[in-house]
Automatic annotation (TrEMBL):
It catalyses: uridine(1498) in 16S rRNA + S-adenosyl-L-methionine = N(3)-methyluridine(1498) in 16S rRNA + S-adenosyl-L-homocysteine + H(+). GO terms for biological process: rRNA base methylation. Residues 81-241 form the Ribosomal RNA small subunit methyltransferase E methyltransferase domain. The keyword Kinase does not apply. It is found in: Cytoplasm. Its EC number is 2.1.1.193. This is Ribosomal RNA small subunit methyltransferase E. Its main location: cytoplasm. One of its GO terms (molecular function) is rRNA (uridine-N3-)-methyltransferase activity. It comes from Streptomyces morookaense (Streptoverticillium morookaense). GO terms for cellular component: cytoplasm.
Length: 249
């Protein structure tokens, strides 16, 4: 069993090196002490979620929400090449969090909520802020659970026009579509740069959206003979690309 991962504030690990004793408190300290019940001598990993990880052992435990970590090593992960962004149309119910969770565990680098024309779910007003907060919290927790040092970013909700701009800036852009004539498994992929995938809603990507994305350089590709739900398609496609690009080598 690999050591549990806990998230610290951005830049908190700056200047930390082997031999340093790092204090972990607050919500993460409480989780480590009161929920995970870590004890002196057990291994632990701290990360800023941006690629820096500190490995160490628990040196001391105080109260219900504080422990000291004796740092044994510091590791910094480079930015992934190529990066993989999934534009995710808003699913119904809690399937959005399911999509974020599994894509994070798989290794996606960025997730973009998309207000597609045929989405049953709509993010507006307070609901938009609350739903986006849930997606970001899910990405953080899934990042820790899957032992990642670099967590995926979850952007603010985008319109179709904004998504088209994002696609136009990518080194490879694709729309997952059951009627795509080209399999994603045979697409020519870049060795570096960025890959952006669009996952449509349960009702499908509208002809107008397909046209806008095609104008931006993104064409339809199919995954396989079966039709996946919007909450699982991004994870399946990401796994395929991670294998093909060598990131899962």
């Amino acid at each position: 069993m690999t050591a549990p991962v806990f998230l610290v504030e951005e830049d908190a690990l700056t200047g930390v090196f082997p031999g340093t004793v790092f204090p972990l408190d607050g919500p993460e300290g409480r989780h480590a002490v009161s929920v995970r019940r870590l004890r002196v001598g057990e291994e632990i990993v701290l990360t800023d979620g941006a690629g820096t990880g500190v490995h160490g052992t628990v040196a001391a435990v105080e109260g219900k929400d504080h422990l000291d970590v004796a740092v044994t090593s510091v590791r910094s992960e480079p930015l992934p090449r190529p990066s993989i962004t999934v534009v995710q149309a808003l699913p119904k119910g809690d399937r959005g969090e399911l999509a974020v969770e599994t894509m994070t565990e798989t290794g996606v680098d960025a997730i973009v909520p998309w207000a597609a024309a045929r989405c049953v779910t709509q993010w507006k007003g307070e609901r938009a802020a609350k739903s986006l907060g849930k997606w970001r919290s899910t990405a953080r927790e899934a990042g820790k659970q899957s032992r990642r040092l670099r967590f995926p970013t979850v952007a603010g909700q985008m319109t179709t026009k904004q998504v088209a701009t994002l696609l136009s800036e990518a080194d490879f852009a694709a729309v997952l579509h059951e009627e795509g004539s080209t399999p994603l498994a045979t697409a020519e992929l870049p060795e570096t740069g960025s890959i952006v995938l669009v996952v449509g809603p349960e009702g499908g990507v509208s002809p107008e959206e397909l046209a806008a994305f095609a104008e931006a350089g993104a064409h339809p590709y199919r995954l396989g003979p079966s039709v996946l739900r919007t909450s699982t398609a991004g994870t399946a496609a990401a796994a395929l690309l991670l294998g093909r690009t060598g990131r899962w080598s």
